[in-house]
Amino acid sequence: MNDPNRVNEPPPPRVPDADFDCLIVGAGPAGLTAAVYLARFNRSCLVVDGGCSRAALIPTSHNYPGFPPGISGKALIERLRDQASSYGARIEDGVVQAIRPHRVGFEIEHGTGRCCVARRVILATGIEDTLPPMENAAEAIAAGALRLCSICDGYEVNGHDVAVYGEAECAIGHAVFLRSFTDRVTVIARRDPPPPAEALGLLDHYRIAYVEGDLTTVRHLPAGGIETITDDGHAHRFDVLYPNLGARVRSDLAVQLGARHDGDGALIVDDHLQTSVNGLFAIGDVVTGLKQMSVAVGHAAQAATAVHNSLEAKPWVRPTTP
Predict the structure, then answer these.
(1) Does 28 have pLDDT greater than 50?
(2) Distance between CA atoms of residues 55 and 32, nearest Å
(3) What is the dihedral of CA 222, 62, 126, 35, to 10 degrees?
(4) I need a surface site. Which of 17, 66, 110, 289 has the fewest CB within 10 A?
(5) Beta-ladder partners of 164
């Protein structure tokens, strides 16, 4: 029965539905694997890719499981894109400019002024390696003369003449790791900061050559290998150069939302890969930990499952047959 004394009130504003259950930023192995899982969970999913996956630089990976002959980073990404798309994940090229809190999750600004709303967000934005001064870095990486990860490809430098360039202490530690694969290892140490005595002791113990100087020029040689020139004008040639100069963690979108991170900017996540911002997940190289594609894929499986379980249940949808 209507109460005649009750004042009519306008209905509460309708909370708009989200455009997607989850938006994924980045289409490397981590982001695309998450898209495969979410699409197979019958979740609506948009992947926005800025085209700067670190994995795409890999000429041939021989330690990614399931590909005994090896597979290039680009080929692996293409397979994952096809797989995610086949289950209904939507993949768009573009850059996410901003992520803002929204009543049902997050509002995401991407493309040229476009916005969408997603209940959850997974960041798979990765890192950007700091490279030495050279003009043709991509060509040198493709040829295997400039390498970025000794965990991935140390096996391939067996017996080669290898140099590591960076701050002395870090470069020496990296060189010690490479002694598992070759007995010809040289550290090119930047002049500042000087290495501690303990690090210098490792050079003698592992018979690692030591050159002090900042690199002014690095050239990929037409016949193969790398030429380096230090600031004192001396030139040195090697089969392979590993720059150990750090990397920029692409975590800005999360940091702007207040997500916890370490001193390098890598995001700190819980056991489900959720950041300190509720509903915002992070996977792959943007997270603290080992930078490996297999690790990133594991992150993706965990995060996508957590995203699915955190959302309300929805009716099962029978896929349409072509």
Answers:
(1) yes
(2) 12
(3) 130
(4) 66
(5) 187, 242
CB atoms within 10 A of CB 255: 14
Q: Beta-strand (E) ranges in 65-140? A: 90-93, 96-102, 105-110, 114-123, 127-129
Angle at 55 between CA 53 and CA 59, to 5 degrees: 130
DSSP string, 4-68: TTSPP-PPPPPPPPPSEEEEEE--SHHHHHHHHHHHHTT--EEEEE-S--GGGG-S-BSSSTT-T
Cα 242 to chain centroid distance, Å, stands at 18
Q: What is the pLDDT of residues 111-152, one digit of tens each?
A: 767 899 999 999 999 999 999 999 989 999 999 999 999 999
Q: Spell out the residues 6+ positions from residue 45 whose beta carbon is closer than 8 angstroms to its own.
A: 20, 21, 22, 23, 24, 35, 38, 39, 88, 89, 90
CB count in 10 Å sphere of residue 249: 22
3-state secondary structure (DSSP) of residue 248: strand
